[in-house]
Q: What sequence folds into this?
Protein backbone atom coordinates (compact mmCIF):
# COMPACT_ATOMS: atom_id res chain seq x y z
CA UNK A 1 0.00 0.00 0.00
CA UNK A 2 1.15 3.54 -0.65
CA UNK A 3 -0.91 5.49 1.86
CA UNK A 4 -0.64 6.67 5.42
CA UNK A 5 -3.91 7.56 7.15
CA UNK A 6 -4.25 10.01 10.02
CA UNK A 7 -7.25 11.40 11.86
CA UNK A 8 -7.83 14.95 10.59
CA UNK A 9 -8.20 16.47 14.04
CA UNK A 10 -7.60 15.60 17.67
CA UNK A 11 -8.04 17.65 20.82
CA UNK A 12 -6.58 17.35 24.29
CA UNK A 13 -7.01 19.19 27.56
CA UNK A 14 -4.01 21.12 28.78
CA UNK A 15 -1.68 18.84 30.71
CA UNK A 16 -3.35 15.63 29.58
CA UNK A 17 -1.96 12.89 27.36
CA UNK A 18 -2.86 12.58 23.70
CA UNK A 19 -2.09 9.93 21.11
CA UNK A 20 -1.99 10.70 17.41
CA UNK A 21 -2.08 7.68 15.13
CA UNK A 22 -0.94 6.84 11.64
CA UNK A 23 -2.05 3.73 9.78
CA UNK A 24 -0.62 2.09 6.71
CA UNK A 25 0.66 -1.23 5.42
CA UNK A 26 4.13 0.24 4.96
CA UNK A 27 4.41 0.63 8.73
CA UNK A 28 4.69 -3.13 9.08
CA UNK A 29 8.15 -2.92 7.50
CA UNK A 30 9.26 0.70 7.81
CA UNK A 31 9.72 2.95 10.82
CA UNK A 32 7.55 6.03 11.16
CA UNK A 33 8.82 9.52 11.74
CA UNK A 34 6.75 12.43 13.00
CA UNK A 35 6.83 16.14 12.22
CA UNK A 36 5.27 19.12 13.95
CA UNK A 37 4.22 22.08 11.83
CA UNK A 38 2.96 25.35 13.22
CA UNK A 39 1.21 27.93 11.04
CA UNK A 40 3.57 29.68 8.67
CA UNK A 41 6.52 27.52 9.66
CA UNK A 42 8.43 24.63 8.15
CA UNK A 43 7.90 21.16 9.59
CA UNK A 44 10.09 20.13 12.50
CA UNK A 45 11.12 16.52 13.12
CA UNK A 46 9.97 15.42 16.58
CA UNK A 47 10.31 11.62 16.41
CA UNK A 48 12.28 9.41 14.06
CA UNK A 49 12.90 5.68 13.68
CA UNK A 50 9.84 4.86 15.75
CA UNK A 51 10.92 6.41 19.09
CA UNK A 52 13.99 8.63 18.83
CA UNK A 53 13.90 12.34 19.61
CA UNK A 54 16.18 14.83 17.90
CA UNK A 55 18.12 17.17 20.09
CA UNK A 56 15.93 19.89 21.57
CA UNK A 57 12.65 17.99 21.39
CA UNK A 58 11.01 17.67 24.83
CA UNK A 59 10.75 14.21 26.31
CA UNK A 60 6.98 14.54 26.55
CA UNK A 61 7.01 13.45 22.88
CA UNK A 62 7.32 9.71 22.29
CA UNK A 63 6.64 7.26 19.51
CA UNK A 64 5.50 3.68 19.28
CA UNK A 65 4.37 1.18 16.72
CA UNK A 66 2.29 -1.96 16.50
CA UNK A 67 1.42 -3.80 13.34
CA UNK A 68 0.28 -1.30 10.73
CA UNK A 69 -0.15 1.56 13.19
CA UNK A 70 2.37 4.10 14.45
CA UNK A 71 1.57 6.47 17.27
CA UNK A 72 2.88 9.77 18.53
CA UNK A 73 2.14 10.36 22.19
CA UNK A 74 2.40 13.70 23.94
CA UNK A 75 2.40 13.22 27.70
CA UNK A 76 1.30 16.38 29.44
CA UNK A 77 0.34 18.42 26.38
CA UNK A 78 1.24 22.09 26.48
CA UNK A 79 -0.31 25.02 24.66
CA UNK A 80 2.82 25.27 22.51
CA UNK A 81 2.15 21.75 21.21
CA UNK A 82 -0.90 22.96 19.29
CA UNK A 83 0.06 22.31 15.68
CA UNK A 84 -0.35 20.01 12.71
CA UNK A 85 1.40 16.67 13.01
CA UNK A 86 2.46 14.54 10.06
CA UNK A 87 3.70 10.97 9.99
CA UNK A 88 6.16 9.75 7.37
CA UNK A 89 7.65 6.45 6.32
CA UNK A 90 8.87 4.59 3.25
CA UNK A 91 6.57 2.48 1.16
CA UNK A 92 6.78 -1.30 1.34
CA UNK A 93 9.42 -1.43 -1.37
CA UNK A 94 11.41 1.30 0.42
CA UNK A 95 11.66 3.13 -2.86
CA UNK A 96 9.31 5.99 -2.16
CA UNK A 97 8.52 8.36 0.66
CA UNK A 98 5.06 8.61 2.17
CA UNK A 99 3.45 11.32 4.25
CA UNK A 100 0.20 11.06 6.12
CA UNK A 101 -2.57 13.57 5.61
CA UNK A 102 -1.81 15.32 8.88
CA UNK A 103 -3.59 15.70 12.22
CA UNK A 104 -4.51 19.09 13.62
CA UNK A 105 -3.96 19.02 17.36
CA UNK A 106 -5.93 21.45 19.48
CA UNK A 107 -4.94 21.96 23.12
CA UNK A 108 -7.98 23.04 25.12
CA UNK B 1 24.94 23.31 11.73
CA UNK B 2 22.87 22.11 8.82
CA UNK B 3 20.89 24.71 6.89
CA UNK B 4 18.97 24.60 3.63
CA UNK B 5 17.40 27.37 1.60
CA UNK B 6 15.14 27.16 -1.40
CA UNK B 7 15.18 29.65 -4.24
CA UNK B 8 13.38 30.07 -7.51
CA UNK B 9 10.53 31.93 -9.18
CA UNK B 10 7.49 32.88 -7.16
CA UNK B 11 5.22 32.93 -10.19
CA UNK B 12 5.15 30.65 -13.21
CA UNK B 13 2.68 30.39 -16.04
CA UNK B 14 0.77 27.22 -16.89
CA UNK B 15 2.75 24.82 -19.12
CA UNK B 16 6.05 26.41 -18.10
CA UNK B 17 8.88 24.53 -16.44
CA UNK B 18 9.69 25.27 -12.81
CA UNK B 19 13.30 25.19 -11.65
CA UNK B 20 14.00 25.34 -7.93
CA UNK B 21 17.39 25.38 -6.26
CA UNK B 22 18.18 24.12 -2.77
CA UNK B 23 21.39 25.62 -1.40
CA UNK B 24 22.68 23.87 1.67
CA UNK B 25 25.50 23.99 4.18
CA UNK B 26 26.71 21.95 7.11
CA UNK B 27 26.86 18.64 5.27
CA UNK B 28 28.16 17.09 2.11
CA UNK B 29 26.07 15.26 -0.45
CA UNK B 30 29.04 12.95 -1.00
CA UNK B 31 28.72 11.48 2.49
CA UNK B 32 27.39 7.95 2.53
CA UNK B 33 23.75 7.76 3.56
CA UNK B 34 22.94 11.41 2.98
CA UNK B 35 20.15 12.61 0.75
CA UNK B 36 18.20 15.74 -0.11
CA UNK B 37 14.52 15.64 -0.78
CA UNK B 38 11.84 17.96 -2.07
CA UNK B 39 8.43 18.15 -0.43
CA UNK B 40 5.59 20.51 -1.30
CA UNK B 41 2.51 21.74 0.50
CA UNK B 42 -0.42 23.33 -1.30
CA UNK B 43 -2.07 26.11 0.69
CA UNK B 44 -4.04 24.62 3.57
CA UNK B 45 -3.19 21.07 2.57
CA UNK B 46 -0.88 18.25 3.58
CA UNK B 47 2.78 17.64 2.88
CA UNK B 48 3.47 15.82 -0.37
CA UNK B 49 6.82 14.20 -1.11
CA UNK B 50 8.16 14.84 -4.62
CA UNK B 51 11.72 13.58 -5.05
CA UNK B 52 14.82 12.37 -3.28
CA UNK B 53 18.47 12.38 -4.35
CA UNK B 54 21.07 10.31 -2.56
CA UNK B 55 24.81 10.75 -2.10
CA UNK B 56 25.44 8.07 -4.73
CA UNK B 57 23.27 9.83 -7.36
CA UNK B 58 20.41 7.42 -6.86
CA UNK B 59 17.09 9.17 -7.35
CA UNK B 60 13.51 8.50 -6.31
CA UNK B 61 10.38 10.23 -7.56
CA UNK B 62 6.76 10.40 -6.58
CA UNK B 63 5.20 7.86 -8.92
CA UNK B 64 2.33 10.10 -10.04
CA UNK B 65 4.76 12.92 -10.98
CA UNK B 66 7.71 10.90 -12.16
CA UNK B 67 7.35 11.98 -15.78
CA UNK B 68 7.50 15.66 -14.84
CA UNK B 69 10.28 15.73 -12.24
CA UNK B 70 14.05 15.75 -12.41
CA UNK B 71 16.33 16.11 -9.41
CA UNK B 72 20.05 16.75 -9.81
CA UNK B 73 22.94 17.93 -7.70
CA UNK B 74 25.92 20.23 -8.09
CA UNK B 75 28.30 19.01 -5.43
CA UNK B 76 30.79 21.79 -6.06
CA UNK B 77 28.14 24.38 -5.21
CA UNK B 78 26.36 22.37 -2.48
CA UNK B 79 23.12 22.66 -4.38
CA UNK B 80 20.28 20.38 -5.42
CA UNK B 81 18.02 21.38 -8.28
CA UNK B 82 14.46 20.25 -8.91
CA UNK B 83 12.77 20.80 -12.24
CA UNK B 84 9.07 20.23 -12.81
CA UNK B 85 7.68 20.47 -16.30
CA UNK B 86 4.25 21.44 -17.57
CA UNK B 87 3.22 23.40 -14.50
CA UNK B 88 -0.48 23.70 -13.70
CA UNK B 89 -2.41 25.81 -11.19
CA UNK B 90 -2.82 22.71 -9.00
CA UNK B 91 0.96 22.77 -8.55
CA UNK B 92 0.66 26.01 -6.59
CA UNK B 93 2.34 25.23 -3.28
CA UNK B 94 5.14 25.97 -0.89
CA UNK B 95 8.10 23.88 -1.94
CA UNK B 96 10.53 22.67 0.71
CA UNK B 97 13.89 20.98 0.46
CA UNK B 98 15.09 18.88 3.36
CA UNK B 99 18.12 16.88 4.48
CA UNK B 100 17.38 13.17 4.49
CA UNK B 101 19.05 10.77 6.83
CA UNK B 102 17.78 7.25 6.37
CA UNK B 103 14.08 7.16 7.04
CA UNK B 104 13.49 10.80 7.95
CA UNK B 105 13.98 14.43 7.03
CA UNK B 106 15.78 16.02 9.93
CA UNK B 107 16.48 19.53 8.64
CA UNK B 108 14.19 21.61 6.45
CA UNK B 109 14.44 24.86 4.58
CA UNK B 110 11.84 27.56 5.12
CA UNK B 111 10.24 26.78 1.79
CA UNK B 112 9.45 28.91 -1.21
CA UNK B 113 5.93 29.68 -2.38
CA UNK B 114 5.31 29.04 -6.04
CA UNK B 115 2.11 30.25 -7.66
CA UNK B 116 1.03 28.95 -11.04
CA UNK B 117 -1.15 31.44 -12.84
CA UNK B 118 -1.47 33.06 -16.21
A:
Amino acid sequence: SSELTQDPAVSVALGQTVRITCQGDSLRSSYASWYQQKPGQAPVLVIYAKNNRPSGIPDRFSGSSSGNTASLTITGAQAVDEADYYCNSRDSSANHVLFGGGTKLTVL
Amino acid sequence: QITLKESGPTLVKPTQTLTLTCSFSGFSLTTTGVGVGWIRQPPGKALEWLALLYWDDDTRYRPSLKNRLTITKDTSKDQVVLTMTNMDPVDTARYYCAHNHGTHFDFWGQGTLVTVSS
User: Anything to note?
Assistant: Chain B has a mean pLDDT of 96. Residues 89 and 116 of chain B are 5 Å apart (CA to CA). Chain B touches chain A through 21 residues (CB under 8 Å). The two ends of chain B are 40 Å apart (CA to CA).
